[in-house]
Design a protein that fits this description.
By secondary structure, this protein is α/β, with parallel strands linked by helices. It is built from 16 helices and 17 strands.
Length: 429
């Protein structure tokens, strides 16, 4: 989240897409009701289903499942073509004025630098034009055809109302109404917040969807302001904490990435993770990465972490490749995992490519599911016809089901039934 839950009360417009906060996140949604009551904020919901959030919205419009990015692309085109952006903010706090090198292009759905054999991009062709001083060339007038602003206008011009409604199924009047409400927050005295959840993050294009919404908020000047931001609605108790407390394989506390096995020296590690300044006197959160790293190592190792021993960098493990949830199921699918203990997680519904996940689970020798609810995952091998078509003989594992309570207290410690992560002390009253 770019903002906090309580800050939502400062919004003039709340847009919910890819989530259902009223039902799934009631403790967060109360701040939406606070904004509606105290600031007369409007609530807009765009969702394939008419949810409980939609039921209390000032405006609701549907869209086809998986078409969110086309809808948001249409919003960007509307804002740019109608000149409904916060010009002062865009010039001062975004890269809209930066001039891009001539190597960058977009043709027939493919960006420049694409390697068909590797199915990946050479992003060096997407770089900014640098001046003699080593900083990015800018055009404050935003008229240079190679500046980010003009390239953005060109790219999103294809997202016309007709195209958006054809792809998303959203009625034209519904789409335009949402655009009009969003455009109002380009005013300096108005601000919008966006709330999303797994309906965005678990798409194969999830990162692009969230980036697109972030671009909308930057065009409107709604990032870094009270009541603004792009805010993820976290699900299980420790989904935020799992990131904060480095329970993810490639992350250290404080959102610091762990080194790879190719980065055996501290200097190489820091250079790869510290962004280069593109403008004189530029303020950049990431430029403090070396300070964050040293602070963490001092907290862990105290006086033993010194400049002479690279602050203990060599004591940290290094990884050879990502070990995220997608990689885990890939290994499972290839028969490289024997067992899986699944607690507070429903991968069959939450991970992309349902059929592949089911096939991966069938390769296990054993599967343990611990959850307060009966979810799809322990039922993956049950043939329910069109709803869940499986070939039962392919299943080769033993399944154990263990129901758990949502929250339990053990010896002055609180455990979440969703994660095997203990807290010392008491829960706040």
């Amino acid at each position: 989240m770019t903002n906090n839950w309580v800050d939502i009360k400062n919004a003039d417009l709340v847009l919910i897409m890819g989530g259902n906060a009223a039902e799934a996140h009631p403790c967060g949604f109360k701040w939406v009701t606070e904004a509606k009551e105290k600031r007369k904020a409007k609530l807009v919901v765009v969702d394939p289903r008419f949810t409980r959030s939609a039921a209390v919205a000032d405006f609701y419009t549907p869209l086809r499942t998986g078409s969110d990015i086309a809808f948001l692309g249409g919003v960007i085109n509307y804002l740019l073509s109608k000149d409904k952006i916060h010009h002062e903010y865009v010039r001062a706090y975004t890269n809209a004025s930066f001039v891009v090198k001539g190597d960058f292009a977009f043709n027939d759905g493919i960006f420049s630098g694409y390697d068909e054999e590797k199915r990946s991009y050479d992003r060096s062709k997407w770089a900014y034009e640098l001046g003699p001083d080593g900083f990015a060339v800018v055009d404050e007038t935003l008229t240079n055809p190679r500046c980010v602003y003009q390239l953005l206008k060109q790219h999103y011009s294809r997202y016309t109302t007709e195209m958006v409604t054809r792809v998303t199924g959203t009625p034209p009047d519904g789409f335009l109404k949402v655009c009009e409400l969003i455009a109002e927050t380009a005013a300096p005295d108005k601000v919008m917040t966006i709330m999303y959840a797994l309906g965005w993050t678990q798409h194969t294009t999830g990162a692009q969807i969230i980036r697109t919404m972030a671009m909308i908020q930057l065009l409107l000047g709604n990032i870094g302001r009270p009541g603004g931001g792009v805010n993820a609605l976290r699900g299980h108790a420790n989904v935020q904490g799992i990131t904060d407390q480095n329970l993810i394989t490639d992350t250290l506390p404080g959102y610091i990435k762990i080194g790879s096995d190719k980065e055996q020296e501290l200097q190489a590690y820091l250079e790869a993770r510290t962004p280069k300044l593109l403008r004189p006197n530029q303020m950049n959160y990431g430029q403090n990465t070396p300070k964050f790293f040293v602070s963490l190592m001092k907290a862990w190792f105290g006086g033993a972490a010194t400049a002479e021993n690279d602050f203990g960098y060599h004591w940290l493990p290094k990884i050879d490749k990502p070990y995220d949830v997608l990689h885990m199921f890939e290994r499972m699918h290839q028969g490289q995992m024997n067992g899986f203990i699944c607690q507070g997680f429903n991968p069959l519904a939450a991970v992309s490519h349902r059929a592949k996940v089911a096939a991966a689970l069938s390769n296990l020798k054993f599967l343990v599911v611990m959850d307060p609810l009966a979810t799809e995952t322990p039922e993956f091998g049950k043939d329910d016809g069109a709803v869940n078509k499986v070939q039962t003989p392919e299943r080769r594992n033993e399944e154990l089901r263990r129901p758990t309570a949502c929250v339990r207290r053990i010896s002055s410690r609180w455990w979440s039934g969703f994660r095997a992560r203990p807290w010392s002390g008491r829960l706040p009253s």
